[in-house]
Structures are given as structure tokens and as C-alpha cells.
Amino acid sequence: MSIRKRTWTTNGVEKSAWVVDYTDQNGKRRLKTFRLKKEADAFALNSGVEVRDGVHVPDRETVAVAEAGKQWLKACVAAGLEATTVAQYRQHVDLHIVPFLGPTKLNKVTVPIVRAFQDELRENGRSAAMVKRVTVSLGSILGNAQERGLTVRNAVHEMKSRRKGHTAAEKRQKAKLRYGVDIPTMDEIRAIVSAADGRYRPLILTAIFTGLRASELRGLTWADVDLGKAVLHVRQRADAHNVIGMPKSDAGQRSVPLSPLVVNTLREWKLACPKGELGLVFPNGEGNVEWHANIIKRGFHPALIAAGVSVPTDKLDDEGQPIPAPKYSGLHALRHWYASWCINRKADGGLELPPKSVQQRMGHSSIQVTFDTYGHLFPATDEAAALAAAEQALFAVDAT
Questions:
Q1: How far apart are the first and last CA of the chain?
Q2: Phi and psi dihedrals of 238, rounded to 5?
Q3: Distance from C-alpha of 233 to C-alpha of 302, rounded to nearest angstrom
Q4: What pLDDT does 24 receive?
Q5: Alpha-carbon gap, residue 223 to 244, rounded angstroms
Q6: CA 213/CA 332 separation, integer angstroms
């Protein structure tokens, strides 16, 4: 590998550039020109290491981010990812990544470029959560391109390794779930149980006392419900397109005990439940997968309004009274309540569940996910009492 200065004259003006002359790992001669010698030196140093490791990718053989995004999406489809997931990834590429980084060559995507990209997203109205999700997708695009030999670096992964401290700070700033705001109170749950009726009552009660995700409820079959042993098994889910598939993770496949109220409700519901080839517990009127929007608008929200678990709006009815709106938007509020109920069972006179049992019932991929989400809800240890007991034991020993 050599670096030489090249000079020439254009319209009587002398110009110069620095040329790096090298041979790549495939034995092919390459030339790359730079305006400054320090740029040529830096390239020579980096490319020399890449050639030695057999990973060097010349600029002419790489592709732009837009093309790499297309290849990644094709790989996602080929891997059998759910249609909902692929659609979400496609939105990330088409609406957020391509408009800002589309023409950029992969070899030009560095950590500073990624940081600038994130700043642009924020300046153009993207939320912090969206910026985070889109950045993850960009990292997957670069990772897929690395495997194809189209780029050497994955700037997103490099940035993550540098930002471990920032990640901890971001977690500290994340708002904790609150009773009466994100998690229904005990009184609200009692009111919902009393008010829920009709064909959606069994689903709402099952959601309250099992903590299943909406997709898991929509994909639940009678074959996975053992009313005799009072337990249900989560083995599949229905995505946003009503396609049946596996749970979100291996931990999502789990068994959840059923309370007597749920068992009795499901026994009655099984007699009236619409029959279908899928054998679903909570199908639509034709026995097929129920749309998530129907469950929320026709079942959950009316139950909240009827239970008085609502908030006033600016809209007025015919009598000039504010029209109430449901206090909680989705079934995930019931999932949060179930987790808090399991965690604080001892306080309610029940048997205390260890954190690992809570994790398994919720179908979390790790105990860390459980603690990150619900750790602040676990009963606190009486540190003062524990310290006093330890002190008393210490002096008792001394006295002997």
C-alpha cells in the first residue's frame, strides 16, 4: 500500500491530490483519491487493517442505505417474520430512514452520521420512542449489509457500546407506571367486573385475571383451556392482520392459573361461544379471529364507561352534560393491573408470589424486564425494622 501526491494543471491552474494505491484481499488493485494527506493516511491505516482481516469493501462495491433497506426487508419476509412486524419495519424504512439517509453509501454511515440522523428525526417531529425504534431498524439494516459483505462497519452498534451510561440515564428518566393513571385501582377493577356484560364479558374477565396480551387473548383456543384443572396455556397469538402465529418470544409460551370466577364464566361462555374451525375462545360472530379494534370499541370501552371508569370530555350530550371517555385506552392497562395484583397478593391476604413467578405468568423474556417494568411495585422491605433487629441481635450476643 502506497501514498503518493498527484499534481496536474487545469486551465493554467495547478492542482494536487493524494492517492492511496493498494491491493484488496481479493488481489485487485485499488486507487482512492483524497484532497488532504491526513485523509489519505487515515484511509490507508483503516483499509490496511480491513484488507488484512479480509473484510474490506471498496466504495464502488457498496450500496446506498435505500438499497440496503430493501434487501433487509426482503430478508425479514424470507425469515418468516409476521406481516405486522414487516409492515412496521417498512414504515421505518420508507418514512424515516430513506428520506434522510437514502442516498448515503453504507461506508459513509459513521457514528457522527447516525447522531446527526437522530437529531434530524427529532427536529422533524419524531418522538423519542420513534427515534429509538428507527435507530434499531437502521442497525439491523447495517448488520444485514455486513453479512452480505456490503459494509465493514455498523455505526449503530458502535454507538450503543459507547452509550451504556446514557442508556442507564434514559431508564432513570422513564416515567414509572402509576396506580390510577396507567394501572387501574382495585375499586376500578371491581367496578369493571360488575359492569362488564354481553359477549365481551368473558374476554374482559380473562384479561383482568390472567394478564394475557390482547394478541394472546385473540389467539386463545379452547384446546388450550383446561377448565377442570383451572389453567390455560398460551401457545399462539393473533397479529394485527388476524394471522395466527407463535407468541412474541419463547417465554410467551406459558401456563397461567385461572380464578374460580374466570372458570365459571368460561364454562357458561363455552356453551354460547360461536363455533369455528380455529376453535377460538373469543372469536367474532362467525367463529373467526376478532379484530382488536372491535374488542376495544365494542367491549372494553363501553365496560369502562358503564363502570364509571371514565374522564369528562369537551363534548356535550343533548342535555348539555359532558360526554365521558374511557379512562384507559387499551387492554394493556388490565395486564398492568394483573402484574401489580400478583406482586402485592400478600398485602391483599393472598399468597406472596416471588418475582420469578410473576415473570413467568407475564411471559417476560427475562426477570430484568419484569423488574424494569414493575420493580417499583414490589413491597418494600422495612429497612428500619431490619436494622433495629440486627442491632438488637448484636448486643444480645455481646451480653452473653
A1: 81
A2: -115, 125
A3: 28
A4: 72
A5: 15
A6: 7
Confidence of residue 50 (pLDDT cuts 50, 70, 90): low
Most confident of 93-107, 138-152, 333-347: 93-107
- Residue 156 CA to residue 163 CA, distance in Å, equals 10
Q: What is the mean pLDDT of residues 197-222?
A: 96
Report the Cα 383 to chain-centroid distance in Å. Answer: 35
Domains observed in the chain: 2-56 (no CATH), 65-173 (1.10.150.130), 186-341 (1.10.443.10)
Q: Is the dihedral of CA 169, 173, 179, 182 positive or negative?
A: negative
In one-letter notation, the amino acid at residue 387 is L
Q: How far is CA 338 from CA 141, 205, 207, 333, 381, in A?
A: 37, 11, 8, 9, 22
Ramachandran quadrant class, 126 (left: phi over 0; alpha: psi -120 to 50; beta: rest): beta
Instruction: Tell me if 20 sits within 8 A of 40, measured CB to CB.
Output: yes
DSSP tag of 7: E
- Residue 377 has a pLDDT of 78
pTM: 0.67
182 and 373 in contact (C-beta within 8 Å)?
A: no
At position 289, the amino acid (one-letter code) is V
- List of residues 6+ apart from 198 with CB closer than 8 A: 299
C-alpha triplet 57, 61, 66: angle, nearest 5°: 105
Question: Rounded to the nearest 5°, which phi and psi values hold at 335?
Answer: -65, -45
C-alpha span between 238 and 242 (Å, rounded): 5
